[in-house]
Amino acid sequence: QRLAAELDIPSIVLAPILTCLEEANLIVATEQQEFVPGRDPEAIPLGEILDAVRALHSGRLGVTPRAVEPAVALLNEVESAMRGPLQTRSLKDLIAGRGKA
């Protein structure tokens, strides 16, 4: 509840995200119902966090759109451009404000 209030979002929106992060062993709930990193923050690449959260929404589209090759190529290029910095930065870097792109 405190995290939802801090982020100013409904807890019902936050709950599935936290579940995904827990299932990916990126966070762990304590007995005090607080969340802490599931392992050393230096060992958690930001790309791994993104992948866990994205998994929440995969497969939700009831239809598969026909691929338009120029659009697919552009999306792949954007994804690659984004992945590079995320794979070299860790949660610890984000917390410390280091390694900003």
Task: Please outline what is shown here.
By secondary structure, this protein is mostly helical. It contains five helices and two strands; from the N terminus they run H-H-E-E-H-H-H. The protein has helices spanning 2-7, 11-23, 46-57, 69-88, 91-96, and strands at residues 27-29, 35-37.
Structure description:
With 101 residues, this protein is mostly helical. Helices cover 56% and strands 6% of the residues. It is built from five helices and two strands, in the order ααββααα. The chain has helices at residues 2-7, 11-23, 46-57, 69-88, 91-96, and strands at 27-29, 35-37. A two-stranded antiparallel ribbon has the order 1-2. Helix 2 crosses helix 3 (46-57). The protein is globular. The model has no long low-confidence stretch (mean pLDDT 84).
